[in-house]
C-alpha cells in the first residue's frame, strides 16, 4: 500500500495503526506533502519499533512532492 496515496480507511487497516492514528497520518501527509520513506514516516508519526516491523513489508512510499497534497490553487483567476 502506498502511504502517500492510500485512503484513511486503507491506512487504518494496517496492523497497529487504527482509525485515530490514520487520521493523524492523513493530516501530516497533507501538511508535509507526503512521506519520503518508511523511516521518515516512522519518525514523523512516532511509531514504535514493533508497529514499524509489522507494517514495513506492507507499505511503499511514492515520490514526495514539494507542495502539500490537495493544496488549493493560488493566484487570481481572470475571466475575459
Description:
This protein has 80 residues and is mainly alpha-helical. It has a domain at 8-58. Helix content is 44%, strand content 0%. The protein has four helices and no strands. The protein has helices spanning 8-12, 18-32, 38-45, 49-55.
How helical, in percent, are the residues? 40-55%
Oligomer: single chain
N- and C-termini, Cα separation: 45 Å
Radius of gyration: 15 Å
SSE succession: HHHH
Task: Briefly summarize what is shown.
Helices cover 44% and strands 0% of the residues. It is mainly alpha-helical and 80 residues long.
For this entry, give a set of tags:
80 residues, mainly alpha, 4 helices, 44% helix, elongated
List the helices and strands and how they pair.
Elements: H1 8-12, H2 18-32, H3 38-45, H4 49-55
Amino acid at each position: 500500500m502506498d502511504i502517500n496515496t492510500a485512503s484513511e480507511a486503507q491506512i487504518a487497516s494496517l496492523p497497529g495503526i487504527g482509525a485515530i492514528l490514520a487520521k493523524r497520518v492523513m493530516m501530516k501527509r497533507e501538511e508535509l506533502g507526503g512521506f519520503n520513506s518508511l523511516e521518515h514516516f516512522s519518525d514523523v508519526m512516532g511509531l514504535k519499533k514493533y508497529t514499524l516491523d509489522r507494517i514495513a513489508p506492507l507499505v511503499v512510499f511514492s515520490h514526495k512532492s514539494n507542495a502539500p497534497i490537495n493544496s488549493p490553487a493560488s493566484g487570481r483567476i481572470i475571466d475575459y
